[in-house]
Records
---
Amino acid sequence: MSINGLSRRALLQSIAFGSALTVASSIPGISFSSSGGKLTVRFNRDMDSLDPGYYVGGHPDNDVNWCCMPALVHYDYVDGMAVWAKSPFVDRVEVVSPTRIEFKLKSGLMWSNGYGELTSEDVAFSYDRMAQSEWKGDYVAYDRTEITDKYSGALILKQAFAPFMTQTLSSGTGVIISKKATEAVGGKFTNDVPATCGPYVMEWKQGQYVRMTRNPEWTGTKPQYDEIYCPIVTEDSAAALAYEAGELDVAQISSDTYARYLKQVPADSKLTVAGALQYMWLGMNIDNPKMKDIRVRQAIQHAVDVSAINQGAYSGTAELSSGIVCPGLVGKRNQTGYSYNPAKAKALLDEAGVSGLSLTLRTLNNQERILASTIIQANLAAIGIAVEIMPLDSGPFWEMGQESKGDTWKDMEIWLMRYGSGPDPYGAFQWFVRDQVGIWNWERWSSDEFEKLYVELVAVSEAEERHKIAIRMQEIMEETGAYVFLTHEPEVFVHRDNISPRFAPSGETMLSYFKA
Amino acid sequence: MSEIASNKALESAKKDQDIKGHMSESREKLSLFLNNRLGMFGLMLVVLFFVSAIFAPYFATHDPFLMDIPQRMSGPTLEHWAGTDQLGRDTYSRVIYGGRVALKVAAIGVSISLFVGLLLGMLAGYGPRWLDNFLLLIFDSIRSFPTIVLALAAVALLGPSLELVLAVVIVTSIPGYARLARTSTLALKNTEFILAERSLGAHPAIIMWRHIMPNVIGPLLILAAMDVPVVVTIEAGLSFLGLGVLPPTASWGTILNEGYLVIRDTPWPIIAGGIPLVLTTLGFTFLGEALRDVFDPRLRKGK
């Protein structure tokens, strides 16, 4: 017999081969070692865009940008605390007053593709552009850049904003791009970066790997490794297997693997928790007809067993979340105003006169999210809500709530979402202001009080006052009924014990600072 | 009168002989099948597959969706015969219910493919030349797409679901049946009994329905029996890749996928999900090959 022109045996062989290839393609085939100037690091997804104004952000976009693009400051650590430090691209960065940050770039740092030298004009162009971009929330306090000369200038803030150095300039959105090159490509780009300038140059094969090799034109401090090879290993188990087989030097690991490694770390290896500045929640679109009634949303808040999600999907390794401010930051909440109470959830549904409700739960298609979704599905089934899980790849997932990317946002009902935060609570709130509705505020609510508090959070520098503001802002979010706060996942890496890594507080690797 | 009586007696004797011959041939085939040990073993496995899938609620020891998170990833116990998965669900019960998905895809997928393939194949073989060429072009176009690639494209457009798996299986299987039906129809098209029917003015649909189909269907049924394991494997493969059934539905492919993800913590989901897949595939393959041996006289003569 034959199907598709293949004999039955050939078809079975093809399926077996195809399956093996799928698994094998997610595991790097070549063994690398951290010695000999080569470092092999797992990327758990492909890059979406490297344009800091219009990218998804986080890993791996920031990991690559920090190796191949300039910035004024980078993250460093003092006594375990994340601080800003001048980058290898500058001779001087100084906060001369609460609203004035002066800088002097190193001379002779060249952009690729013949776009000339890195200048203060590039700095001004980059940050002016950021203030108008999708990530303008990071630049809410930024006013302008004053150019002093070819290499020097000053960033002027509209008002004092203490987190500007750590929350904004040190983060992925603090990257500087080439004015001439960006204008030459029409003002925006994705992964085809028109000009790079940094210790490494990048080679990217879509869906397979990013290879960064020393930039021969780089005149700054030389990084440790000649080559950083980053195979894209989307599957967590495959990554752990590849690490244990010696094919990776550094790998981000899943919570299941973390729980297993806590019992026994692989030989000659170390575990590093890069931070828990992630906040995950179950979101609800308050504009969707099925979700309009706040009692339905509140019923869902009471129906979801967050502890079960932590145990079942994260092996108990995550911290339960009560809001969007992450552990260790000013404004962290210790409890929610709702609790797991299926009887109350059912009563709220009855009060709303809702029965036979069916919802679609959209989630990224990875192991932990699918498990969490399955638990939520069972929780909601217990109160009479039928849930269909819709697993999505990262491309369609990150676009689904954005009005500029199609009409999917209209159909969205509930979804599992996780954002990363910087080391200041302000970073987490910027996505939920009115301006972000239809961009990153997919729940689509807005509140005058929230807007007012957001402005205050930016302006106030006193910690206790900021704590109160942040707490109230999270209460407002909770009162919309549009959120079930779930977990703060730790970003855990396993790496060879002879490697000294550096990570951003939000968990991205800072590969040019890795040492052997 | 005596001549007529003699003729009737001769006809009657011939009929008796035909019936006896037919019965004897049937007995021979049955005997051949019963003596085929692998075939009997296959039949036993197939019966087990059908019975456990149809009567899953009686075979399962637990609700396949019931989570018991404190008991997650436990090994086999008296309570959980094949251990539990990441959410503490009973793996044995999920494997039993997973058989239903396999049965559903195999039964519906193969039946529809067989029916549509038979119809299109007969039309291609018996119909006008242009229709034959047109249908062949479609069959070949479909056959040029590897099943997995077609499934990937379909999932990218429509999202994963059991219905999509079925659609992919049906679309990719039809050309196989249709081509076989077409070839057999072409061989029969100019035989004397068909020409006789045509000369008597029988409608082509009647000819295809009454005379061609009964002669074509046999090989197609054998092909269908041998196709079942392929279809079961395709479903499991797609579900393993996350392109098949959606959670929390249990399918052997999803059980294997979940097991693969936690293989370093517990091997039991992989073992429990793999065994029925292997046995069912073997069962249908042995059964199909035994049926082919019995019904294909050329193979028998060759032995």
---
Amino acid sequence: MKAPVPFSPQNLKYVSSLYRRSLRTAHDWINRTDFYREKAAEIKLRFEQNRDISDPKELQKVFETTEELLEKFQHPDPIIPPRRPGGIEYDRNVPPRYEKGPANFKNTV
Amino acid sequence: MLKQFSIAAKNATRLPYMMAARVVRPSAFTPMRFTRFVSTGSPLTKEDVLARTVSVLKSFDLKNSGDKIGLNTQFTKDLGMDSLDYNDALVALEEEFDVVFDDKSANEIKTVGETVNYVLKNYLPEQQDLDREVR
């Protein structure tokens, strides 16, 4: 990766992307909203702490750590809306509901 | 040839094909008839999306929360959100509408109206012929 330029628009975009990804990862793991908000506040604090970094090398290091953390905490079964790519209903035709199903099996032997 | 074809087409339209289908299919497997909204596009209206978006945004502590949030409200200027706050809001909206803001569009979104348009464009309507429990 090229050395990042501090306070540039590209940098803002990349950091936003990282932030969104971390929030999504947190949401994958945490089911309860109040716990998730706590975690989100913690994530925000961590990003805020690195707000004023003006040294490109340090910035690069922070980015690498963040990517590593994101990879480390990646959820094995993340929440994906069913009909989005990767979701369970994606690209599939779910059979419609029937008014009456087939008759139950009866053992006559 | 063409004439024949048109006659055949006329006959086909006259056929009560619903009845024909019912004869072919065993009665035990007649699917429930639902109106499909898929062809008509998303059943969400712009007002719905805006109202839900506003209710999600109100759950964040905004600087100028007294102001009315409309389509032209800018996240950073009017609501006093910084870039982290507004990305947080976007992730919350993703959950609300089951859409996914991809990186490119999320970086370009600046107003509430743009968010609403994105949601309307990318919203997947529910499949109507499924059980509500399955959906």
